[in-house]
């Protein structure tokens, strides 16, 4: 008999009706109001102590002249913000950060997409490749940067050695190439940010690759079958099916890559030992905040920079949310 | 029931948080002054290289001779040393003795985080005084008339040169030994002879000179012409002064006009010296051990040549300090350690330093150290980073400007003017 009851309730199309039937007492018990809060409590407390409170305290700091060693921290209002906005190095850091985002995000997503497309067709050892490409993501940026510092070394770095060998080889084949000049990957101001972007792409490509792969696997094979019957080639199948159907994934990946990229810090910090790189070319917003707050101990000024970065990221997030909702409305 | 549970949870959490906050506020340092009847002294420094081993030996020797004191020495890399020290001085947990570099001393003294030590100096049976120390580091141990430190050493830069390359180029004295340059003209002539394309591929692969440290090298050049990062009153930037600019142009000329030094990008300049691809470099005395370890390298040390109208060489000093809030008993024991290290600083000299103690510096044992004794000739005209509380903050503008000029990212005039504008802005901040 119980089986019958179950099947009726399960087959019911409206779960709301079931719950009403199961709980005849219409008014919820007074205590139930708290149970939700109780379940949320552990997370809420962590959020409060480790996120909200420090964030608000940061706002408080940014309004004071706060040197770590000083006994008194006088209130200065918006003076720190004023200083930051009239500080040309702050704007340089913002420009460098934007440059990094432009270099690393589109190219990084392209690499992820290409990897995913490649992997989608792989049948043998697919897991091995997935793990291999994903592995850099789980390495700490400090380790990645130390590793790449050697790869980038002008005199003994692997990148220059390979390039040198390639150029020399091509010259032997009779190509009219100039002898290879070692590339100063990290010490030339024009090369610094592209080098950091290159390293970051290697580091992070695996993460988005997984998302793209999931997106590709979610596309029903019927579309491809139909397209193949109609005589579409590989490029046409990609352009007419995969790319449009991957748009939500692409948008998601782009949004999160941009947010992450704006907070770039570890790369410059480790590669240049906390300094700003040649001609300040590797100085990013978070690095500048760190330098002011933790190298100069001007905590108030550092906090003001943090809040200005927060404003920039918030603005970008707003734009992207708007893009998201715009898409949903169209769908 | 839920309500009661909820309230219980909240109460418990608040209690835990409060307890955690309060216990976090209490200074953790100096908590165990005694362990097994011994006074425990915490000693922090940044000597993570071979110099740390020497310091470790000196401390162990001190413990042997002072069985009532136990020293816990903590080596923290210089890169993070001041972060840790600053937080401990601000929020508790500071060591009883710590090393302070001359460039940072004024900053910490100005915030009253260091203990005045004149009482300790006078309490000794054989009190130390100005006559016992080289004048420059002795002066450095004072801030606004109060003595906060025991100066341990002086570490100026000096001229390291590859004696084999000098001999090969025929730059020798009457005995046939390599002869280091003493004037600008000699320096340029030697550097030109030593700059070569040894493989004949049209590219220079042996340089007469390399700039290994832009900061110390620039300050050396600048001081010799009468320039500095800030004006003598410490209130304005002075990097675009005619004297400083003259020095900057001279450095740029070495790279772009005389072509005796590589552009300081993409070259590990110190490695080039060690590999015999550079004949001269101006580096700190503390690098001597790393060269001595390289048996195949034939090198020697000499005082920095005189490039400008007066003598001058950048240097630093390690100062031994105590935190302002140290207890009298701890301070006494800590002073014993400081005094011991100072008295035995010959060992320290061997590790690549010039002892600040005159008697040690003049001792035959020290004078027998070839490089150290040569670099030691410069102690009377050593110059430090600016002696103002914001000295460390100046470097964030000074160093990139020097680099921009040397890499020709900007003209020396523009780069130095930018630096001065930023330095002025910084010095105006409350």
Automatic annotation (TrEMBL), chain A:
InterPro entries: ABC_transporter_permease (IPR051393), MetI-like (IPR000515), MetI-like_sf (IPR035906). Keywords: Cell membrane, Membrane, Transmembrane, Transmembrane helix, Transport. SUPFAM superfamilies: MetI-like. One of its GO terms (biological process) is transmembrane transport. It is found in: Cell membrane. Gene3D superfamilies: MetI-like. Its main location: membrane. It comes from the Bacteria. The chain crosses the membrane at residues 37-61, 98-119, 131-151, 191-214, 245-265, 302-324. CDD domains: TM_PBP2 (cd06261). GO terms for cellular component: plasma membrane. It is a multi-pass membrane protein. The keyword Calcium does not apply. The keyword Secreted does not apply. PANTHER family: ABC TRANSPORTER PERMEASE PROTEIN, INNER MEMBRANE ABC TRANSPORTER PERMEASE PROTEIN YCJO. Belongs to the binding-protein-dependent transport system permease family. This is Uncharacterized protein. It comes from Capsulimonas corticalis.
């Amino acid at each position: 008999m119980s089986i019958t009851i179950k099947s009726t309730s399960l087959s019911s199309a409206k779960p709301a009706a079931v719950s009403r039937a199961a709980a005849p007492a219409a008014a919820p018990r007074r205590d139930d109001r708290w149970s939700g809060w109780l379940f949320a409590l552990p997370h809420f407390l962590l959020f409060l102590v480790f996120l909200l409170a420090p964030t608000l305290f940061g706002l408080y700091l940014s309004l004071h002249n706060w040197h770590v060693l000083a006994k008194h921290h006088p209130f200065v209002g918006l003076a720190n913000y004023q200083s930051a906005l009239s500080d040309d190095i702050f704007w340089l850091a913002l420009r460098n950060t934007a440059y990094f985002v432009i270099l690393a995000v589109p190219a990084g997503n392209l690499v992820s997409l290409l990897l995913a497309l490649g992997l989608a067709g792989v049948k043998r050892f697919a897991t091995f490749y997935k793990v291999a490409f994903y592995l850099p993501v789980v390495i700490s940026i400090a380790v990645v940067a130390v590793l790449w510092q050697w790869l980038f070394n002008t005199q003994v770095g692997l990148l220059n050695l390979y390039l040198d060998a390639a150029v020399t080889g091509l010259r032997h084949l009779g190509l009219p190439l100039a002898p290879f000049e070692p590339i100063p990957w990290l010490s030339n101001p024009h090369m610094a940010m592209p080098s950091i972007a290159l390293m970051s792409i290697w580091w992070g490509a695996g993460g988005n690759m997984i998302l793209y792969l999931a997106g590709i696997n979610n596309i029903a094979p019927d579309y491809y079958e139909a397209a193949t019957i109609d005589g579409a080639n590989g490029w046409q199948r990609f352009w007419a099916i995969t790319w449009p159907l991957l748009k939500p994934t692409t948008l998601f990946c782009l949004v999160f890559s941009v947010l992450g990229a704006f907070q770039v810090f570890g790369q410059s910090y480790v590669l240049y030992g906390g300094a700003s790189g040649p001609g300040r070319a590797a100085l990013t917003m978070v690095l500048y905040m760190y330098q002011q707050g933790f190298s100069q101990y001007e905590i108030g000024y550092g906090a003001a920079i943090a809040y200005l970065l927060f404003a920039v990221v918030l603005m970008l997030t707003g734009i992207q949310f708007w893009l998201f909702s715009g898409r949903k409305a169209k769908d | 029931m839920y309500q009661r549970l909820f309230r219980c949870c909240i109460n418990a959490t608040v209690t835990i948080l409060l307890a955690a906050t309060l216990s976090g506020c209490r200074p953790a340092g100096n908590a165990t002054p005694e362990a097994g009847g011994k006074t425990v002294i915490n000693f922090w420094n940044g000597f993570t290289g071979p110099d740390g081993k020497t310091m470790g030996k000196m401390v162990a020797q001190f413990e042997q001779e002072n069985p009532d004191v136990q020293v816990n020495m903590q080596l923290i890399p210089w890169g993070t040393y001041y972060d840790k020290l600053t937080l401990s001085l601000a929020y508790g947990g500071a060591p009883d003795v710590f090393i302070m570099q001359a460039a940072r001393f004024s900053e910490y003294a100005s915030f009253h985080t260091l203990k005045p030590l004149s009482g300790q100096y006078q309490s000794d049976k054989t009190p130390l005084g100005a006559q016992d120390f080289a004048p420059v580091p002795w002066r450095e141990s004072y801030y606004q008339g109060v003595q906060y430190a025991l100066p341990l050493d002086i570490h100026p830069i000096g001229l390291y040169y590859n004696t084999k390359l000098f001999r090969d180029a025929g730059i020798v004295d009457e005995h046939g030994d390599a002869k280091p340059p003493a004037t600008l003209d000699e320096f340029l002539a030697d550097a030109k002879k030593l700059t070569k394309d040894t493989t004949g591929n049209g590219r220079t692969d042996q340089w007469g000179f390399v700039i290994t440290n832009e900061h110390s090298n620039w300050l050396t050049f600048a001081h010799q012409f009468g320039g500095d990062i800030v004006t003598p009153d410490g209130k304005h930037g002075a990097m675009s002064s005619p004297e400083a600019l003259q020095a900057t142009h001279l450095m740029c000329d070495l790279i772009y006009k005389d072509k005796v030094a590589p552009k300081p990008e993409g070259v590990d300049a110190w490695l080039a010296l060690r590999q015999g691809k550079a004949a001269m470099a101006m580096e700190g005395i503390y690098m001597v051990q790393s060269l001595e370890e390289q048996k195949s390298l034939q090198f020697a040390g000499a005082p920095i040549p005189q490039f400008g109208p007066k003598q001058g060489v950048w240097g630093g000093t390690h100062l031994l300090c105590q935190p302002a809030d140290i207890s009298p008993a701890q301070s006494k024991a800590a002073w014993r350690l400081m005094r011991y290290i100072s008295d035995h600083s010959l060992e320290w000299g061997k590790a690549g330093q010039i002892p600040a103690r005159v008697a040690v510096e003049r001792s035959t044992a020290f004078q027998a150290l070839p490089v150290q004794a040569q670099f030691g000739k410069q102690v009377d005209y050593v110059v430090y980073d600016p002696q103002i509380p914001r000295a460390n903050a100046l470097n964030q503008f000074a160093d990139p400007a020097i680099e921009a000029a040397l890499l020709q990212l900007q003209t020396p005039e523009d780069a130095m003017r930018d630096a001065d504008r930023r330095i002025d802005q910084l010095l105006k901040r409350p």
